[in-house]
Amino acid sequence: MNLFTWGLIIFLIAVNALYVAAEFAAVSVRRSRIRQMAEAGHPQARRLLPFLEDARKLDRYIAGCQIGITLSSLILGAYGQVTLADWLAPHFERRWGDMLGLATTEASAAMVVLVLLTGLQMILGELIPKSLALTHPERTALYTLLPMRWSLWLYSGFIAILNGSGHVLLKLFGLSHAGHRHIHSPEEIALLITESRDGGVLKSEDSERLQRALKLGSRPVRQLMRSRIAAVDVATPVDEILRYVAGSPYTRLPAYRGTIDHIIGLLHAKELFLRHLENAGFTSVEQVLRPILVVPETLTTDRLLAMMRERHIHQAVVIDEFGGASGLVALDDILAEVLGELADELKEDEPRPQRLPDGRIRLPGVMRLDQAETWLGLRWQGEAETLGGHVMGALGHIPKQGECLTIEGVEVVVERMDHLAIRSLLARPVLALEEEASLG
Question: How high is the pLDDT of residue 343?
């Protein structure tokens, strides 16, 4: 037994470790990070990026790793049996030959060598390189790229034959081969965001924003719309409209003809006053109206955002199943859903959740039931999506200002009404009620 034998064994384990590290790094590396490095001029990143962006090339890359792992393992096993087992067998024979016999001592030596090599390969050739690759995927992928490019050239024939055979077998079973691709489902992305927050990489507020952005695809616009629509009637004299717009906090107002359910366009305050200054004799605001987007309340928010971007429109009228205008949604509403409430001096002072000194809380009527859960201490269940709608459903009629009721143990007072909609309400949350009961 000489140093060359052990040196070759260690070399074969190192080769196996190289391929294991390259495989795990290739499937776990962040493509965006490699693209960023490539754009910054990193030469190895430029060479690696094509493999990550092309599913077929990445499939060949992984196949090359797997062939390398298989070959190095087979060669290591065969060489170890020839060298180590032959060296160890005479020692076993001298010690236990009389008791076990020649065949048994040779088999025992082969078994010991097999267990030894398997343990070394598992620890040094599998577990350690896998951990390194998962901990430092970008660095590992870049360091292993050069030997992998040589391997892909060396194994090109094997890769073509084996990949082709695998595709044929998949087709025989009616399965399709999509290749290796760096694609994550929304659920997986949400899990990654949560893990990044728990690991301290993301702040809690950043994590919440990303989670809200992921949910836009499943959120209907009726959950974001404002039920109160500040609009103007095109039949109103221009002078009156000018006074109304001058006192309004909004720079864009829907315009309707006859009833609010017949919205025909969007009025921009700037264009209205410019037209008035240029031509004081114009008699109808219809001349300065812009098109307005009309969407059903079941449309998803991400689709609405795409439509706004395509048509360069910042507001949309939301209609219900009967064709009536049920609300208005603006680009600011979508941004506020993702980024949180946006400060805007032009916005009307909307009611906001507020804790009062007497233990009650003030809640806006348009607040969603799921958002109110943290304030109320429980989750109201019902067909309505907003607090105002839920209270109206519990009452069975349009409430009056100051009207009181109790819903699932929560005392509620209708604080303010806006025509037929609840503007704000006062509620005594469950926690406050429990504290009062314990003090009593």
Answer: 42
